[in-house]
Structures are given as structure tokens and as C-alpha cells.
Write a structure and sequence with these properties.
21% strand; 263 residues; six-stranded parallel β-sheet; Rossmann fold; 9 helices; alpha/beta
């Protein structure tokens, strides 16, 4: 496993960063063994944090969802693309939001006022099920009129219990096409999320996710090892992928066992 900080590798105490969708759960369905594996990592002295591009849920809801699965986490252990997007905007500015309550919450905590329509300093687009023609029209019009265009993330899809659904990137692409402007993207693997992780977490030994384009590139930018699990977007039929993972396994439990066996 050639990548990652320090000679001790992931077997020594270090931080493991786990994606949520496709690693810990698929929609409302917990993935088998995830809670026990997080406990195993912590028992081994590792810190475990969760880095998600899903901006929809408020932070407390994500923490509560982890707790319901038997995974104890505090707000400081969960970093989302909503928070990364909020970090890009200045306090006192206004934002027209096309996203879930997690985006509204993060912006409010950053001192950014949300508006329902009309002129705004920024348009922020994240994943939400209510996206429709009217929202597309209002978002693209505001961007054409000069509002800064911020995307929480650009994932094309999200893994849910019944299969893949359109992700925030699909909504962002529609606004981009209609407005003629490219977005500034906050989430993995882009700089706002990288900076937030470095600031709040510090060095990361292993980044685990189900998407090479987000989690794998995030791992490389953090100087971490990339562990790819096949419980989300990527399947074995998609291999090989770029960037090349340092370890590939069927699920989180199998990945941790594989990394430990190699150490």
C-alpha cells in the first residue's frame, strides 16, 4: 500500500475517514457489519470520522442516524458538503438555496441569510427531492443575473436501498446548462472540503468510500490511502478504476480485515 502518511500505515493509530452513503448505509438501510467495524477500529486506537457529500440532512439527524445503527458520533465527527459550501460564503451575504435543510442549517450557522427568491449574492444547489422546473428556472435566472453559483457536490448519483438515484451533480448540471455558468464545487474531492478536513481533522490515514472520482481523489489530495468498498456506486464489474485503490473489498468489514492482514 504505497500511499499514506507515516511508516506505521493504517495498522498504527490514525484517523480513518468513512463515507456514509454506500459505506455505512444505503438510504435508510444499514450495511451489514458497519457498526461493528467502526467499533473495531476505535478499539484499535483509531479515530473514525465521517465525510459525506450528502448535504440534505441536518447535522443532528445524521448523528442520530449513526447512533440508531449503534455508531456513536458527535457533531465534530461528521463533515458534510453542506458545511463545506457554507465555508465558501462570507457572513452577512445572502443565498438562494435549492437544497435540503442541511444546507439551510449550515448557511445559518455561517451567518449567511437564505432567501426564497429574487436577487442574492449566491445560489447554492444541493441534493433534494423537490427539484422541479420552477426551481431550475429561478436558480438559473439568479446565476445569469450575477449570483455566485455554488454546488454542494457534483456526484452524479447516490446509492439508495433500491438502487442508484440522481445525485446533486445531476441537479447542478441542469442549472449549469440553463445558466451557461460552471459551478464552484464544495464537496469531495474539491478544495473547500479538503481544507475543512485538514483544519478540523488533521492528517487522515485511510479514506474509505464507494466512488473513485470523489473518495479516491479525496484520498489522494489528503495524502491518505484509498480503500474502495463495493457496497455503493462502484461494482466489481467497474474495476479497474482511477485512481487505483490501495485496497478493494466487498464491504467495510472486509476492507478493514484486508488492511490489517497486509500491515
Amino acid at each position: 500500500m504505497p500511499h499514506g502518511p507515516g511508516p506505521d500505515g493504517p495498522s498504527g493509530p490514525g484517523t480513518w475517514a468513512l463515507d456514509l452513503d454506500g459505506v455505512v448505509w444505503r438510504g435508510e438501510e444499514p450495511l451489514p457489519g458497519a457498526a461493528a467495524t467502526v467499533a473495531r477500529l476505535r478499539d484499535g486506537g483509531h479515530r473514525v470520522v465521517f465525510i459525506s457529500n450528502n448535504s440534505n440532512a441536518p447535522l443532528a439527524a445524521t448523528v442520530a442516524k449513526l447512533g440508531a445503527l449503534g455508531i456513536q458520533a458527535g457533531p465534530e465527527d461528521v463533515l458534510t458538503s453542506a458545511r463545506a459550501a457554507a465555508s465558501m460564503l462570507e457572513p452577512g451575504t445572502t443565498a438562494l438555496v435549492f437544497g435540503g435543510p442541511g444546507v439551510v442549517e449550515a448557511l445559518a450557522e455561517a451567518g449567511v441569510a437564505t432567501v426564497a427568491d429574487g436577487p442574492a449574492d449566491a445560489v447554492v444547489v444541493g441534493w433534494h427531492r423537490e427539484f422541479d422546473y420552477d426551481r431550475l428556472s429561478r436558480a438559473s435566472r439568479a446565476v445569469r443575473e450575477g449570483a455566485r453559483f455554488v454546488a454542494t457536490n457534483d456526484d452524479a448519483t447516490y446509492p439508495m436501498a433500491g438502487g442508484l438515484v440522481p445525485g446533486a451533480g445531476s441537479l447542478v448540471a441542469a442549472v449549469s446548462y440553463a445558466s451557461g455558468e460552471a459551478p464552484e464545487v464544495a464537496g469531495k474531492p474539491h478544495e473547500p472540503m479538503v481544507s475543512m478536513v485538514r483544519r478540523r481533522v488533521g492528517p487522515v490515514a485511510v479514506m474509505v468510500g464507494d466512488r473513485p472520482d470523489t473518495d479516491g481523489r479525496m484520498a489522494r489530495r489528503l495524502g491518505a490511502r484509498f480503500g474502495l468498498v463495493l457496497t455503493g456506486v462502484t461494482t466489481r464489474a467497474d474495476l479497474p478504476v482511477d485512481p487505483t485503490p490501495d485496497a478493494v473489498a466487498a464491504d467495510l468489514a472486509a476492507l478493514v480485515a484486508l488492511v490489517d492482514a497486509r500491515a
